[in-house]
Specification:
TRAP transporter small permease protein, disordered C terminus, about 75% helix, membrane, cell membrane, about 170 residues, 6 helices, mainly alpha, transport
């Protein structure tokens, strides 16, 4: 295995481990906050005003991270009808085009996201519910989209080399 292939494999496995921890942690936090708010609201007729904001933040961040994992596992949403009726070589070219287009779109969103984060940082606004600076919350989107870009680069490499699916044998689901 070449040094570049080992590097790609390490990056893939490292990101998978980080994504797993973040997705699991944020899912547990989201479930805990959601359950807490329901119990407080419907049993004790009270609640915390910040709870729903943190619940949404944890849930949306976990879902975005899961989207990055879907790219890794080649489970992202797409239309496969054409791939089913064309030869394998053509299907591979179509995959390369689709991955390249997805990479370009994600890179564009990263750029726009960072522009917006810089704008909100200059405005120095904060959420009244959580007290968190808006730029900090909005930085989640471009940060995770950087992960999408890395995932699409790895998918393009794998498709170029003729690998149909990302390797799963690392013990990280």
């Amino acid at each position: 295995m070449s040094p570049f292939a080992r590097l790609c494999d390490r990056v893939d496995r490292g990101l998978a481990a980080i994504e797993t921890v973040i997705i699991a942690t944020l899912a547990v936090i989201g479930i805990g906050l959601g359950t807490m708010q329901v119990v407080l609201r419907y049993v004790f007729n009270t609640g915390f005003e910040w709870n729903e904001a943190y619940f949404v933040l944890a849930t949306v961040t976990a879902i975005l991270m899961a989207g990055s994992r879907a790219v890794r596992d080649d489970m992202h949403v797409r239309v496969d009808v054409i791939k089913m009726i064309v030869p394998a070589a053509t299907a591979r070219v179509l995959d390369l085009i689709a991955h390249a287009a997805s990479l370009a779109l994600c890179a564009f969103y990263v750029w726009c996201g960072f522009l917006y984060v810089n704008f909100t940082r200059a405005m120095d606004t904060a959420s009244p519910e959580t007290g968190l600076k808006d730029w900090l919350v909005y930085s989640i989107m471009p940060s995770i989209l950087v992960l999408f870009c890395i995932r699409y680069l790895l998918r393009i490499r794998a498709t170029w080399l003729g690998h149909d699916v990302a390797p799963h044998g690392d013990g990280v689901a």
